[in-house]
């Protein structure tokens, strides 16, 4: 191919702009990114060579070399990995933004564009070279290709790049950084070594640099022809726990997650027995921008006997733990395992179960010993963890203990064990209400009797709550009961006298109730007297088996059909408005008043009126009467 000049794809240009303008405060990461790419390229070669050993050519030892040239002001990162064809170089280094780039760029707005943390979370990879380089040249040849199929790619990291075919005997890739004015500090063996050992110690391949020697005559360090490894070259997770420092665990996390913040917790174990594997798993402190995407594959990398197999091996973690990052290295799986095989493997099932238990254990530990941290975790990931209640029956009880809610006692952080410990004598159920917002839940008329009697009610406002509750019937032997469904049965909490009085009132109001049923026959399934209200005239409840108003609204918003079931109107016999209604019986106003009472109950519950204009007309006619 003759020399061609091509344009970067729009998203790539944006990334390049961000890289050179925003990541300046942490320049040295360029070396981490490029060494990591070199290591990935070697992993890929090792993997492809499983089926085709000829790809190793005459160089079976995979390695990365880093050196600099003080005169030319260049730094070179060389790997003898998989290399790239011309098409691959064009696609990977310029015209096809990595999956997620577009979505990511769309998410960044205004000032956020300067936020290095967000950019870090995404990982800028190859382009980070332009933080320190005014030009990057890549010389590469795909393993197995002819020497005449070498490629030179070169760019100043602005609008476009050049590619041409070159002769290249050496397999793999050289990335050559032509440093910008002012970046000379990186032309130092000591500096480069210290960056490599800081960021790349765990890389499983040797990273070599030319050996330095003290020259007595020149009185300075000079570079020799000998190469020496500058990293430990043992994958972090293969090292015994006692030899890995907290700082190294944290650094490894940054590399695999692109999260600049320290993880919330991590766990590192070697599991022996029928299935043997090593796991190093992290729970992040902050949710990634695409947490809600359930199709997003998990963040766990799979290795088999230290050979990298695949990123994002989703079969290794349940979907509701998709925020977990880390590495699992199995001793049992075949090296040529595919995603499909993973789904069916019994070993994978054992690994997934073991890893799930470990993650839950980590979370329990944080919840128990670092309550503030757990509260923050809950804000970030709580709603995702709730998915587990319906998806992981085996661990449902453990998960239920990890849940946190708002309640009528506290705005956040209430656990089910907390609730149970505070239950009133004679209270048999765990009461809850679902609503669109905390304010709507708190002010719901259905809570009035519970407030009056000092009974705590959980206030659930997450979108997944309704779904979760359809899988969680009880906790600690106590049923979970909605205060907006069915009749209120406070069981032993209600004394006999109260019950008798309620029955007597119901009897006395029978004619009124019958009349109301007539007026509202198209809107209410039933009308009855209730003891659940204190200050409000009426409220809407649904039958035990029916869908709650909150869930029906959510379904409608999502464009789905909610089964049409009419609610039940409950009235407060003690309320002035109901008394007024009673005395209006027989008058022509009765119908208007009945509808107003019903509409107000719908509004108080957070519902929408089907005919708001009719409501306004009725209220106005009363106001002007
Ligand atoms: N040294 C290399 N050898 C072979 N291919 C490379 C090398 N460096 C980069 N590439 C190719 O270029 C692509 C883009 O690299 P880049 O670092 O931008 O992203 P990435 O490595 O895919 O993602 P990330 O950095 O987020 O892990 C890589 O996926 C790989 O295909």
Automatic annotation (TrEMBL):
Coiled-coil intervals, chain numbering: none
Region (C), start-end ranges: 554-625
Record-level Gene Ontology MF annotations: ATP binding; ATP hydrolysis activity; ATP-dependent protein folding chaperone; unfolded protein binding
Subcellular localization: Cytoplasm
Listed HAMAP family: HSP90
Oligomeric form and interacting partners: Homodimer.
UniProt name for this protein: Chaperone protein HtpG
Species in which this protein is naturally found: Rubrivivax rivuli
